[in-house]
Amino acid sequence: MIKDIQRQINRLRVFIDAIITAAAYLLAWYLKFASPLSQVEEGTGVLSFDTYAFALWFIVPGVVAVYYSTRLYSPKRGVRDSGEFGAIVKGNFISVAIFFMVLFVLNQPDFSRTMIGYFAIINIVLTQTAHVLTRKILVKLRTNEKNIKNVLLVGYSRTAEEYITRLVQNPQWGYNVKGVLDDEVPAGTTFKGVKVLGRIDNLSVILGNSQLEEIIITIGLKDYSRLENIVDLCEKSGVHTKFIPDYMSIIPTMPYTEDVQGLPVINIRYVPLTNPVFRFIKRTIDIIGALFGIIITSPIMLATAIAVKATSKGPIIYKQERVGLSNKTFKMYKFRSMKVQTEADEKTKWTTKGDPRVTKVGKFIRKTSIDELPQLFNILFGDMSLVGPRPERPQFVEKFKEEIPRYMIKHQVRPGLTGWAQINGFRGDTSIYKRIEYDLYYIENWTFWMDIKIIFLTFFVGFVNKNAY
C-alpha cells in the first residue's frame, strides 16, 4: 500500500514538474525576447519563436529523465528539503550542460544560451516551490482523520523502530501507528511517540475495542519460531496483515527477490553491474574513454616518462600487483614516483607524508595524479574500468577483509581509475572504512549517469590529491 501511495505521489510530481519545465522555458523566452526589459533586436541571428517552441518537445522529457537519474523521485530515508533541492539543482545543471553540448554538435550558435540560463534558474525556483507546496498540501490532507490509516505493530524489534521512523518522517503516507505489542519490552515504553501497549496475547482484546486497518508483524529474528502462531492470531481478526522481515543485520542494504517457479529467492545484495546489458554498456564506455584518454594525454605521458627517466634510476613504468574483479590479481601500471626499493618494503609500507622514498618528480605527479595515467592501458586491456573502487594490494586485501565488514564486496565490479570515494575526498592516506562505505554505495546504486557524473567531477576535484604523499 505504501509503495502504491508513493507511486501515485511520484506520478503527480512528474506531471507537475513537466508542466513547470514547459512554463519556465516559455517564461525564460518571454524575459529574453518579448518583455519590456528585453534588449534583443529582431533580425539576423534571432531565431523564430516556433524554433524555440519546437525544442520543448525534447527539453521537457529530457529534464524529467535527468530528474529520474538524480533520484529526485526515488523514496529516501527521511527526505529533507535540502536533499530534494540539491537533486533539482543538479538535474537542471546536467540538463543545461547536455543541451549546450547538443547545440554545439548541431552547430547552432544563434540559439540563446542566456535564455537557457534564465530557464534553469526559473525552473529550479518553480520546481522547488511546487515540491514544497505539494508536500504541505499532502500533509494537510492527511490531518483529516478520515484519511488516516490506523495500524498496530506486533513485535518490538529493530524493524519496528525502522518502520515507525519512516512513517513519522513521511506523514503524507497517511499512516498512524496506534501502538506496539511485545512480550519482552515493558508496557508504556515509547519510541518516537509510539507506545508499547502490552503483550502479543492481548491482540484479540485490542482488536475488539479499536478500529484498525492493518496489522504489521515486526517480530525480531529470535522470535521467528512464534511466527506461525502470530500469523494465525492476526488472520483470525480479519484485519489486513503484513509481515516485515527482520534481516537488517544480515542484509544491510538493498536486497531483491526472484521468483523461481513459485519459490521466492532473496538476493542478499543488489549489484546492477551483474546485469549483462549494463556490463556491456560500461565496458563499451571504458574502451572508448580509454582510447580517447590515451590520445589526449599522450603528450603529458611522454613528458612524464622523460622526466622520470632523467631524474632517477629505474624503470619508467612501475608495475604493482593489485586485486580486481572476482578477486583475480593483475598488474596495475603507474609512472614510477619513488626510488627503487626492496620487495619487502614495497609490500609492507604505506606511503606517508614526507616519505624519503618519493622522488621530486614523483611528488608532483602523485599530487596531480599524473602517475595514474598509464592505468588507461589497464582499462583498455579489461583489468580496470574508468569508474569503480580503487584496487588494493593482495596483502592489504587479506588484512582488510578480516577487519572491515563487507570489504570483499568491492571485488564484484572492476576496479576504477577514479571512483565515488575519490571524488568525495577519500583518496590516499584517508579512512579505509569511509572509503569502503562510499565504494559499496557506488556498487549498489550504479547508473550510467552516475559514472558520467563521477568522471565529470574528477576533472574538478579528483586530479589534485591533497592526501597523496
Would you write up a description of this structure?
There is one protein chain. The protein has 469 residues and is of the alpha/beta class. It is 51% helix and 12% strand. The protein has 15 helices and 12 strands. The protein has a 6-stranded mixed sheet, with helices on both faces. It has a two-stranded antiparallel sheet with strand order 7-8. A hairpin with a 5-residue loop joins β9 and β10. The longest helix is centred in the middle third of the chain and has 36 residues, at 276-311. It is flat, with a radius of gyration of 28 Å. Mean pLDDT is 84; it is low at 76-80.
Q: How are the SSEs placed, and which strands pair?
A:
Layout: H1 2-34, H2 49-69, H3 81-105, H4 113-142, E1 149-154, H5 158-169, E2 175-181, E3 190-191, E4 194-198, H6 203-208, E5 214-217, H7 227-237, E6 240-243, E7 256-260, E8 263-267, H8 276-311, E9 317-323, E10 329-335, H9 343-348, H10 360-367, H11 375-381, E11 385-387, H12 394-403, E12 416-418, H13 420-423, H14 432-445, H15 448-462
Parallel strand pairs: 1-2, 1-5, 2-4, 5-6, 11-12
Antiparallel strand pairs: 3-4, 7-8, 9-10
Helix pairs in contact: 1-2, 1-4, 2-3, 3-4, 8-10, 8-11
